[in-house]
Amino acid sequence: MIAVVVVRAGVLPTGGAEVVAECAGRAVLVGSQVAVAAESLRGVATALTLVEQEAFRPAAIAHLLAPLLIDEPIVVLPASPDGRDLAPRIAFTLHRPLHAGATLVNANHVDMARGGGRELHRLVPGATFVATLQPGTRGVVPDPLLPAPTITSVTGPTSDGDTRDAVVMAVDEADPATIDLGEATRIIAGGGGLDGSDRMRQLADIAAAIGASVGATRVVTDRGWAPHERQIGTTGVVVAPRLYMAFGVAGAVQHTSGLGDPTHIVSVNTDPHCPMMQLADLAIVGDANATIDELERLLT
Ligand SMILES: Cc1cc2nc3c(=O)[nH]c(=O)nc-3n(C[C@H](O)[C@H](O)[C@H](O)COP(=O)(O)OP(=O)(O)OC[C@H]3O[C@@H](n4cnc5c(N)ncnc54)[C@H](O)[C@@H]3O)c2cc1C
What we know:
single chain, 300 residues, alpha/beta, Rossmann fold, 2 domains, 9-stranded mixed beta sheet, 9 helices, 14 strands, 25% strand, binds flavin-adenine dinucleotide
């Protein structure tokens, strides 16, 4: 197995280190300032091939990488935005199936969450395939004793010659309202303690005022008050915010296991003894709905 990770300005995407770990440290890093990104994989990577490419043009990059990947039976990319763009191009170029959004990948089986996270599909893959791995599902534990990886640098034609390729017109600042929740640094989440769907709209307004993204528990997504991609937890998205604010969230293990390790947790709940309040740095015993009204008045 080998990982392919798109790097932008020396930064690995969410889930980048994880796919490298999943592939026993073997990876191709492609993009801008790949050598900087390679440094951040100390303790995880064992053998890296670096392909410096200023422009991200997925079809051209897939062609460029094909000779490097043709003898690799399993190619794994993170299901990050760039990974999701590049993976189908690589699969097409190598004439292989793509197993997208996997939670586990190996030569014997591929697990994939389907049906809004309610079903786990296990398939027995063919001998060669491409997969994307959902960030946060496998984890990564760096080994401080691992020797520095071997590094091979590959130069190739710049990836801007193919007129049929996607063209990046501009790269906008990430908008917390729409970015992948897995990449959000601040998250405001609503839970079963909310008394109506409009509370999620209020949370979105409050989130916009402080540059945060909106998350939810499964109780809220099951009620249809938020889309499934906003659900945090084992059958939702795994997140890694620095600030997590929970309104009416009990803190069930299926929810908190997807929370990462936030630096600050604020919880508003009527039950001072629920798990979310035990985890919180700031635990406010009170009505989440009234608190949301007041925050909306103060911030929007
Ligand atoms: C296989 C499986 C997978 C699951 N996957 C996920 C998952 O990915 N993500 C997920 O979130 N859950 C998941 N769940 C569900 C999980 O077990 C919990 O049921 C769910 O997280 C609870 O959501 P909640 O805290 O919003 O709601 P509740 O359990 O209903 O808790 C509501 C909380 O709000 C508080 N409250 C009530 N009224 C107020 C008020 N007026 N003001 C303030 N606080 C109030 C209550 O004290 C309580 O703590 C899964 C369950 C299973 C079995």
